[in-house]
Amino acid sequence: MVMHKDERASDPLTAGAGGKRDHQQSAAVGGVSHAAERKPTAGASSNDADSQLKSTADSGSSNDAQHQLTSGSGNTREHQKKPVRILAIETSCDETSVAIVEDGRRMLANVVSSQVDIHEKYGGVVPEIASRKHVETITVMLEEALQQADTSLDEISAVAVTQGPGLVGSLLVGVVAAKTLALALDVPLIGTHHIAGHIYANELVQPLEYPLVALVVSGGHTELIHMPARGEFRIIGQTRDDAVGEAYDKVARALGLPYPGGPHIDRLAQMTDDPLELPRAWLEQDSYDFSFSGLKSAVLNVLNQTKMRGEVIPPARVARGFQESVCDVLAEKAMRAVQEFGARQLVLAGGVAANRGLRTVLAERCAQAGMQLVVPPIELCTDNAAMIGAAAYLKWERQSFTPLDMKAKPLFTLEEWMNE
Ligand SMILES: Nc1ncnc2c1ncn2[C@@H]1O[C@H](COP(=O)(O)OP(=O)(O)OP(=O)(O)O)[C@@H](O)[C@H]1O
Ligand SMILES: [Mg+2]
Question: What sequence ranges are listed for the domain Gcp-like (predicted)?
Fold first, then answer.
């Protein structure tokens, strides 16, 4: 069975579309500087692995490592003098990725294996297939990352992994791999939040300055987050129905475009200057929330009505109209938030951050307002492990590590993560 992002939380075995990873370098847009949720049902084997790891952890060695790192011993000082190399693992959806990130900023390696070709024929991610592919691919990615970084395992300071949100079966593969490595290497484990990862991907290319407002636009999330300081997240607005990436993928499917549809709509939208008139969902006057299901239904209605009349509407006009409606609302609310919170930067994050229409409109609006816009390079927009290594560094700075009996958290919140 194939399902979509909004259905993840209600059905543990299925999920929505991920995104195809485009490995290109960042390109400046408009002279602006560019910075390069789902449900628990652990399978029997993973639970076994969990309990084995828990019992070994309880018996001592990794707890000792954590103790040494937090107690100000000689070992701690040694760790702090050396560059901190975090080996990060991301398997929350349909990308298997391993990265090695130094001091939270320098990407020594970031290898990503996308399953998009496999899920494309189903029109969305099939969770059972996704987790099986992660199992097959994870060790290959690990070896490749170490090779690319020219790093040996004994140079690794900590192991980070996406703990959630995500598909439970997919998360579990990364979590078990990370626990195993942390235990074997006797280094700390850092469970990391996926959305913090999307935001801190930007720091791999440009320092973030606070207070800032982050606009997170991905396959499962659409959020405006006020960050008064490093590692402090206050969600001020979120989608009330579909995530923006999910809306892109559904509209693309209605237009007969392949999965994932976001990049295809983006491409089509550039092909016309004659957008179809579509509504904008502003919601209440002061609200920072979003809603995309009405817009999606409006597109489906237009397509059905023109079909019933025997007419054809150029898909590019639909794509352009849809994209303009989405981008207008995202940009307007983001600009209002940066003003209200006195932000020094507007930071874009998530798979839909790759969207050219959104990048262009935000660049224009920020240039007018004298606001610094930070956007990730294309290859760091969609899921990758380097962003997890960057976010995990927040926890390293606090010497706040995760016990080896850590569980994957399909519905993990940012607040829960930072307060752990
Ligand atoms: N150029 C683009 N324009 C619009 N959407 C895009 C573009 N490129 C990718 N996307 C969309 O980005 C989404 C994938 O992003 P991402 O990998 O961040 O999602 P996810 O990890 O599955 O969800 P989440 O991060 O919320 O858990 C897909 O919906 C895809 O269609
Ligand atoms: Mg993501």
Answer: 107-389
Q: What is the pLDDT of residues 354-411, one digit of tens each?
A: 999 999 999 999 999 999 999 999 999 999 999 999 999 999 999 999 999 999 999 9
Q: Is the confidence at residue 15, as pLDDT, over 90?
A: no
Both 48 and 195 in one domain: the answer is yes
pLDDT band of 17, cuts 50, 70, 90: very low
Q: How far apart are CA 249 and CA 243, in angstroms?
A: 10
Which tokens is 364 given?
Answer: 């224009």
Residue 116 to residue 101: CA distance in whole angstroms: 25
Nearest-ligand number for the alpha carbon of 216: 1
Locate the ligand 1 atom nearest the alpha carbon of residue 381 and give its number.
18
What region does 283 belong to: left with phi over 0, alpha with psi -120 to 50, or beta? left
CA of 351, nearest ligand number: 1
**Which atom of ligand 1 is least distant from the CA of 165?**
27
- Asked if residue 40 lies in contact with residue 386, where contact means CB atoms within 8 angstroms, the answer is no
Q: Where are the beta strands (DSSP E) in 233-379?
A: 234-238, 345-349, 372-374
Binding residues: 194, 198, 216-220, 249, 262, 266, 355, 383
Reported as a single tens digit per residue, the pLDDT across 128-144 is 999 999 999 999 999 99
Buried b (16+ CB within 10 A) or exposed e, 332-358: ebbbebbeebebebbbbbbbbbbbbbb
- 418 domain-assigned: no
Which structural domain range is residue 145 located in? Answer: 44-199+384-404
Alpha carbon distance 4, 17 (integer Å): 6
Task: Give the ligand whose atoms come closest to the C-alpha of residue 257.
Answer: 1
Residue 358: the pLDDT is: 98
Q: Name every protein residue with a CB atom under 6 angstroms from any ligand 1 atom.
A: 17-19, 93, 194, 198, 218-221, 245, 248-249, 260-263, 266, 350-352, 354-355, 382-383
Q: Which atom of ligand 1 is found nearest the CA of 354?
A: 1
* Residue 290 included in any domain: yes
Distance 17 CA to ligand 1 centre (A): 8
Q: Whose CA is nearest to atom 26 of ligand 1?
A: 220
Residue of the nearest CA to atom 31 in ligand 1? 262
Our count of domains for the chain comes to: 2
Residue 342's CATH number: 3.30.420.40
Sequence ranges of the binding site for Fe cation: 194, 198, 383
- 3-state secondary structure at position 306: helix
- How far apart are the two ends of the chain, measured CA to CA in Å? 35
